[in-house]
Design brief:
alpha/beta, Cyclin A, domain 1, Collagenase (Catalytic Domain), four-stranded mixed β-sheet, two-stranded antiparallel ribbon, 12 helices, 6 strands, globular, binds zinc ion
């Protein structure tokens, strides 16, 4: 979806200005995936991140109220932007995460406020009240609802690429999944054939993960992905970008199917 003319003009003015030195330093120091990218992708990611920072409503929550800086927003937005890099979106004119209106950021793990009745109509992860939570993606209302994040965990996943966990990639994968209105682990795909391949491959990998998780076997994918197909896509997305070579070695059909959707090959970014 293309943004209105005035929005495109505002974006051009924004992106014509160089990014502040502190912003570039924040990306270099705190976003491991950014450092890995080829330079042309880096430029595009920087633009996507700046647009997300400028256009979404960002709020620091609890002790983070009034303390969420633009550089912190940029670190989160750059990770979210990695998922969009190959999807053919132009940061100057395309709507980026049109189903996201707000990013709420807590300093660390927070208590979910999602009542069960809301959580069960499609908000993932489904958490009961009182559960210490690292992230949530809501699928609600005309604006699409917020992503809610723990800053400590967003930063940890951003720095520790080999650890495989990345709450920002996870929650924004849910947002991509939600674009077609349902949270079922199948995002918008290009063709009927791609949908068939997706269902075949991901169903097989999901069943395999469920079996391994039940047996307590080690897996590249976080066993949390065995919760349901929506969580499986989010967890597979984390591994695809954070531990691509390991995922490709463990489950090449899954890697290739995700590569077909994201139109990116993160294993090629890894240092040899
Ligand atoms: Zn989730």
């Amino acid at each position: 979806m293309v943004v209105p003319f005035f929005t495109a003009r505002r974006r051009k003015r924004l992106l014509d200005q160089p990014l502040a030195a502190t912003g570039e330093a924040a990306l270099q120091q705190h976003v491991a995936l950014y450092r890995r990218l080829p330079s042309a992708c880096k430029d595009k990611l920087r633009d996507i991140a700046r647009v997300l920072v400028a256009e979404k409503n960002w709020e620091g929550c609890g002790p983070m109220q009034g303390k969420l800086t633009d550089d912190m927003k940029l670190v989160i937005a750059a990770q979210a932007g990695v998922l969009l890099l190959g999807l053919g979106l132009d940061p100057l004119r395309d709507d980026l995460y049109p189903n996201l209106d707000t990013v709420l950021v807590y300093p660390s793990a927070f208590t979910s406020t999602a009542p069960r009745s809301v959580a069960t109509i499609g908000n993932l992860p489904v958490m009961s009240e009182g559960f210490a939570n690292l992230g949530e993606a809501w699928n609600q209302g005309s604006g699409g609802g917020p992503v809610i994040l723990s800053w400590a965990d967003a930063l940890r996943g951003s720095l520790d690429i080999a650890g495989g966990h990345n709450v920002v990639l996870h929650e924004f994968a849910h947002k991509l999944d939600m674009l077609d209105g349902s949270v079922n682990g199948t995002p918008l795909l290009d063709s009927r054939e791609q949908v068939d391949q997706w269902k075949n491959v991901l169903t097989g990998s999901y069943i395999q993960l469920s079996r391994s998780a039940a047996l307590g076997l080690p897996t590249v994918l976080d066993p949390y992905g065995a919760t349901n197909p929506g969580e499986f896509f989010a967890v597979a997305t984390e591994a695809f970008f954070q531990r691509p070579s390991e995922l490709r070695a463990a489950d090449s059909p899954l890697y290739d199917t995700l590569k077909g959707y994201f139109k990116q090959d993160p294993a090629a970014w890894e240092p040899v």
